[in-house]
Structures
1.
Amino acid sequence: MQSEREIVNTEKIAARRLSLEEVTKLGVKDRLFVSADTAELKLPDCYVPAFLTKSGEDFEGGSITARTVFQEEVSCLPDDENEAGIYLADENGSVTIEVLQSAGVVLDLALFVPGGDKGALTALYAAARQAFGADIVQIWRQGLKEVPDVKVDIFEEQIPRGRKGSDSPKRDRRAIDTYPTRADFIEFSAGWKPVVEIHRPIVDNTPTI
């Protein structure tokens, strides 16, 4: 029977535990290590690289929130001895921690395949296998839909406040000359809504010499 350490890929690094006061002096670009143990995946005594979600000085109440490189948010009380704590890599550190390594990445892409028939998709998967090896997952999360052969302009328009028609809505161009499915993957600003219109090429009628 394999032990947990035989099936979990970790790297041992020298580190030191940070106090709450030390954490409050760090910024969002400082690389930390937090517990890898989550409700979904129990990995006691393992740590993962992470970054604070905001500058340490902006946290209140002693609770710190960090986002791991695996895109999970972890909250902890650095000074609580009953918690795993937050660590910083330090060659002269007094402890050695085991840091969980990455096996790879999962791509969540909007991929346009011209033609998009079964033969094209089969060729795409075959090329990915050839590039990355047989361990690649052929289909992780596949959602296929036909794309109309039309180009659109994508804007974001400010949602009006107060009485209707009191002010003309402000509009910002986000992307032009693109396929309509692109709108599904653009993050629009708070207080703004997406507007999709048929692309109208701008014709410059200025006389030239």
2.
Amino acid sequence: MAAPVTTIGARLRGALPVERWEATGFPGRWVGGTAMVLGPLLMLTGALLRARFHFFYPDQLAAYERHPTLMATAYGLFAAGSLLLWPAVAVLAARIGVRSAGWGLWGGVLVMLGLFARTFHAGVDHLAFQLVRSQGVGPATEAVSAGYGAFHVFATLNLAILAGWIVLALGAWRTRVLGPARAAALGLTAALPLGVLKGTTPLSLVALAGLCAALVPLGLTLLCAAPRPSRAAVLRWMPLILVTLGLMVLLGQAG
């Protein structure tokens, strides 16, 4: 009897295995667990780096003029951590939704909309910092002041930024995905200041510490749970991921 022909797709699945989604839903426990660990920690690191400067935008722009590398790093880490929260929230909402579809749906949707709004704010922050570089802190501050509070579509999502974490935390508590203490810690994320060029306040650090306390242990639990990938699979995946990230950076810089 002739041996069955092995397709290219089957060979790729064997070399680069991907775990099924049944337990956690999209994007799976490896992406979601990694995001739960890295996202909150990156945001907290970024907030700590800019903590010594007053939180309102004139002081943030002045701080960028004096310490451009430090402020760019702080805002970049915070934005990267916020971006990484979407897979973390997707997996958490899916786990909640297994036991209560309504809490999982609305908690996940509201938080995700809030994360889109924060990404928009990060883009405005970047543009404002470039104005400091090209025109100086005075004209940049005047430009931000002239447009501060102007209507934009993402302003309608400000309530989602605040309410989403509370709904998600209540859902996690009611479904016992998180215990009472960690669910309360997750709800503290609603206290994180929102808007353009917002620096760090004591309340920011409390909110981000709560986010870390809620998500980092859950992420580690997901990553440590069986089954685990073989060492060979990890060694094949890591270079591919690193090369892909490198290409994304280069292509992004190319415009």
